[in-house]
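Dear Dr. H.,

I hope your travels went smoothly. While you were away I took the liberty of generating a structure for the chain from your last submission, since the lab meeting agenda had it listed for discussion. I wanted you to have the full record in hand beforehand rather than looking at slides cold. The sequence, exactly as received, is reproduced here:
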Amino acid sequence: AIQTWADFRTFGKQIKQKTGAATIITATQLFNQFVSASPTRYFDRDDQPLYHDDDSSIRKAWENAVESIHAGITGNLQSGTDQNAGWVAGRVAGQIEGAWWTQIIHDTAPDLSGKWRIARQPERPGNSGGSFLAVPKTSKNPEAAVAFAKWITGADVQSHTYNDIQLFPSTPASFENGIMRNPGDFFGDQNPLDFFSKAAPEVPVTYISNSERFIGAFATEITNVESGGKDPERAWQDAIDQTDRVLAKRGVSA
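The corresponding predicted structure, in token form, is as follows:
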């Protein structure tokens, strides 16, 4: 029923009208997940900023989040406590995030087992989260550190980690070793393992610049729009200006 982000908002408004529930917790999560499902992010592969462009994925993510706020489908539940209460009380009818959130929802609202289902987000799936391992030059035992990194990212270990806490593997070999198993019936007759295994290869490969660690203003300003009613265009320009200033201080031209 939902193929586009416009469909997503239409469906969310139907949920709100019939039940009073928001579709997702915050507009910030929606913004971030749109970016995480995009072929490009904040910088190109030469580390040149892209977010100024009117057709950038950041601008599109922003517009989608703002339209969702105006449609009334975001919950404005900014804290983890409010988020959990929103699910338990039925004030939030969904979530848009990575596979590992299935465990969080299960642990937060176990009495809702069987009432949740998994669906594709509009346009394409996206990645959320993940880890990067490196061995410092000053390491006292680099060989052992590398060996440990290889072990912990191996297919079998990642399979066991999925079984324990639903951290989705980064290696396709994990899907083929027979270790991973269906985490239960929280999603009714759906098998999350089967669902995410099919979706994972469709996640676009994208460049994540090291300079992204200085990017935070966009999420902050989206929150200001949702929780404080700030003018979206003023908030957008403030996010641009603040990001440019931070990058300039770090020696990155914007």
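Two observations you may find useful: The chain is about 45% helix and 0% strand. The mean pLDDT is 92.

With kind regards,
E. W.
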